[in-house]
Write a structure and sequence with these properties.
Layout lengths: L1 E8 L4 H12 L4 E6 L2 E6 L6 H10 L3 E7 L1
Antiparallel strand pairs: 1-3, 1-4, 2-3
């Protein structure tokens, strides 16, 4: 299990938070927290990589500018 912290540009309101949460929830990850400018997800095994997280964020209309694992 790996926690991934995402830094996201373009989010400015609760609607943005809901859009990113909905996009990430389409992936096989546990979405722990989404706030304006960031998200925290938990990956089980490595079914999903950062590239898929980036694609989901971009499809929601935002830009993934950084990620870090813990």
């Amino acid at each position: 299990m790996t926690e991934i912290h995402l830094t996201i540009e373009g989010m400015s309101c609760d609607h943005c938070v809901m859009a990113v949460r909905k996009a990430l929830e389409q992936l096989p990850v546990e979405v722990k927290d989404v706030r304006v400018g960031s998200a925290l997800v938990v990956l089980e095994e490595s079914e999903v990589g950062v590239e898929q997280l980036k694609q989901a964020v971009e499809e929601a209309g935002y830009t993934l500018v950084g990620s870090s694992a813990s």
